[in-house]
Amino acid sequence: MRPIRTYKPSQAPGFFDVELRVQWLLAKGNPLSRLDALIDWESFRPLLESIWDQPAQGPGGPRPNDPLKMFKALLVQRFDNLSDEQTEYQIADRLSFQNFIGWTLADKVADGNTLWDCRTRQRRLVGLGFREALVQAGIFEKLFALFDARLRERGLLAQPGKLVDASFVDVPRQRNTREENATIKAGGTPSAWAEQPAK
User: Fold this and answer.
1) What pLDDT digit, counting tens, does each position of 23-79 carry?
2) What is the pLDDT of residue 163?
3) Which residue from 45, 50, 92 is spatially nearest to 73, judged by alpha carbons?
4) Taking the alpha carbons of 7, 9, 10, 13 in that order, is the dihedral positive or negative?
5) 167: part of which helix (H) or strand (E)?
6) Which residue has the higher pLDDT, 131 or 148?
7) Which stretch of 129-143, 153-167, 183-197 has the lowest confidence by average pLDDT?
8) What's the angle, vertex CA 96, arms to CA 92 and CA 98, rounded to 5?
9) DSSP code for 30
10) Which of 103, 120, 123, 197 is the most buried (most CB within 10 A)?
11) Within a domain: 8
12) How many other C-beta atoms are found inside a 10 Å radius of the C-beta of residue 136?
C-alpha cells in the first residue's frame, strides 16, 4: 500500500506577518516604494487642501479622508489604468498599494464612490466626491502636472499601463559628442540632428 502524501499546511497569521510581508515586498523592488521615497508629498498638500471651500467648524462630525492619501489613490488608479471600483478593490487587496498610500489593514479603504461620486462625509465639505471636487476647483490637471514635474526633477518618467506593468523608469539621458556640444554652445544645430529630429 502506498503511503499517503502530506503537504505543508497553511499557517495561522502571526502578529508581525503583515510587517514582514511589506518588508519582503520592499526588498523585491516595489516601484511605488521607490517613488514614495523620492517625492516630497507634503509639497502637494496646500494645493490639495484648497478644495475645502470652508474652514472646519470644529471637531464634530465624521472626518474626511486625508486629501494627500486620496491623491495617492488617484495616482495608483491612473498609472494602473483602474476603474473606481477596481481601485477600491486593488488597494484593499494589495499591501504595496496600501503602504504607498499610507493606509493599513485596519483602515477602511475609500470606496469607488468616495473617489468619484457624492458621499455623505465628502458632501458636507465640498458637495462632491474627491476627484470631482479637484476638477471643479480647477486643480485636477495642475496636480498631475506638478506630479510630472516632480518626477522629471528626479529624472523619472511615469509609464502608465496595466496593473502588472505600470512603472516609473529613469529618463533616457542624451549624450552629445564634444563637437555637437561646441556647435550647440555656438548657437547652431549639429548636422547629425537633421536625421534625428527627436534629439
Assistant:
1) 887 788 778 888 888 889 999 999 888 876 555 556 666 677 888 998 999 888 888
2) 40
3) 92
4) negative
5) strand 167-170
6) 148
7) 153-167
8) 45
9) -
10) 103
11) no
12) 14
199 within domain boundaries: no
Q: Are 133 and 75 in contact (CB under 8 A)?
A: no
Percent of the chain as helix, strand, coil, to the nearest 5:
50, 5, 45
Count structural domains, the chain.
Answer: 1
Q: Where does residue 130 rank: exposed (0-12), middle (13-18), buried (19+ CB within 10 A)?
A: buried
pTM score above 0.90: no
- Amino acid residing at 103: W
End-to-end CA distance of the chain: 74
- Tell me which residue range forms the domain holding 166: 18-51+64-171
How far apart are alpha carbons 100 and 74 in whole angstroms? 12
User: SS3 letters for the chain?
Assistant: CCCCCCCCCCCCCCCCHHHHHHHHHHHCCCHHHHHHHHCCHHHHHHHHHCCCCCCCCCCCCCCCCCHHHHHHHHHHHHHCCCCHHHHHHHHHHCHHHHHHHCCCCCCCCCCHHHHCCCCHHHHCCCCCCHHHHHHHCCCHHHHHHHHHHHHHHCCEEEECCCCCCCEEEECCCCCCCHHHHHHHHCCCCCHHHHCCCCC
- Which one, of 74, 135, 139, 131, lies nearest residue 101 by Cα? 74
In a domain, 179, yes or no: no
